[in-house]
What does this fold into?
Amino acid sequence: MSEALPEFDLARPATVEEAVAARAGAGDARYLAGGTDLVVNMRRGIVAADRLIDLTGIAELDRLDLDGGGTVIGAGVKLAAVAENAEIGARYPAVAEAAAVIAGPQHRKMGTVGGNLCLDTRCVYYNQSEWWRRANDYCLKYRGNVCHVAPGGDRCWAPFSGDLAPALLIHGAEIEIAGADDRRRMALSDLYTDDGADHLTLGDGELVVAVHLPADNWRSAYDKIRVRDSIDFPLAGVAVGLKERATGGPELRIALTGTDSRPVLVDGIAEALADGFDDSTFPAIEKRLKKQVQPMSTTTLNAPYRRTAAAVVAKRLIARLVG
Amino acid sequence: MARIVRLKVNGRARSDAIPDNRLLVDYLRESLRLTGTKMGCDGGECGACTVLVDGEPQLSCLTLAASVDGAEIETVEGLAVNGRLNALQRAFHEKLGSQCGFCTPGMIMSAEGLLRRKSAPDEADIRAALSGNICRCTGYVKIIEAVDAAAAALRGQPA
Ligand SMILES: Cc1cc2nc3c(=O)[nH]c(=O)nc-3n(C[C@H](O)[C@H](O)[C@H](O)COP(=O)(O)OP(=O)(O)OC[C@H]3O[C@@H](n4cnc5c(N)ncnc54)[C@H](O)[C@@H]3O)c2cc1C
Ligand code: FES
Ligand code: FES
It folds into this structure.
């Protein structure tokens, strides 16, 4: 037998309300979507739960609404469906491009939008077997007292490496959240904080129901660097958006994943572009980008390389969009 | 907790009491003794456990059996036609797409998913469809040739 999963009970709710209710009252309960992150982590012993709430039977989460002005993508929509949807590809190219390069084909058939946005942070000291972590006295993120990446500090630096978030940030996404008493909407960027051990701002038992994207005319693109192009997580992932304006130069947005404990929407791009595109524009953008990301030694590639590579990917994508 | 789970496995309807925490791969291998499906890693990395869930290649090592209640599961054991290897199995054998054989059932199930969607895949399609399956022996060239040959055979063309 495979390394058996610890004991838990499984709830299979049919509605969002039932799912949220199933979470209340259970000690350590977790939502289970495609399981391509959660089940891996449970098998490795880095996530424990005594109840799993399986979201795959909830029809509302499969909603994909492209008819109106904006777009609604349910949290349960599969990554493969996002990657293959021609309408998403036309309206929000970076979103489809990001979905298409997440993990391998089997994961994309199983993994969901909600699971990707709520993906756990990752680190070479964390995503390891029990005996490996024990030999290291564990780490600050789980069971230990020290972050081996920055032992003098008091925080965990594990980066968030979901590919969809930066692409959705470029397009001004909001998320719809269900809690015990009500539903609310907030900017996607407010879902995250820069703490690798606790990077989501969701309240106890809150469930991501859907992503709402405004109708916009941003053109966009996504790319990432990784060790194996066939399957790996981003060591730095970059989404770029470009919008032509009637007067003045184009507007530009850049967002990154894989570098920090939260996805980063780079600030101050408008100032760098104030005089339109010329030879000095990219160096000005590059300076801002490099200053605002803080990759650490959390992966097999070193931090300075990831910072430099992120800027190179951004530059290539900008060139592609300005084209 | 255990619950009654209804599945169709390789065409046969089943109804079994399955613990909530049981992975689909363990249910197939341990309860049904369908040991064609392999476990090649500690979760999600290698593709050796790939089976078809409602026709789509998925990883049985990350799937709870109880969460696919009602689904149709196909494993490598279900592919033979009247006791004879199907086109993909035969091509893997004839084109040397299999060496130690450990990755082969997963490779074949990923390829089977592809050929059902696309009868004339090009090399890029084959590579993309198999990109979640790792092989330590063959170097992949022979695997890609095997899938190509099987597709041609199914279309009635000489390989
Ligand atoms: C080999 C391998 C390679 C991978 N490569 C990549 C990659 O390149 N890029 C990438 O981004 N990911 C990658 N992944 C991770 C994963 O496959 C994807 O991020 C996937 O989108 C996760 O979605 P899921 O539905 O499977 O999530 P699950 O594993 O089901 O859940 C993940 C987390 O989100 C929570 N959650 C799920 N849905 C909701 C919801 N609606 N509301 C609130 N919380 C929720 C769960 O409780 C859990 O904590 C990889 C995984 C593996 C095994
Ligand atoms: S056993 Fe390796 S991916 Fe499932
Ligand atoms: S034939 Fe040995 S792993 Fe592929």
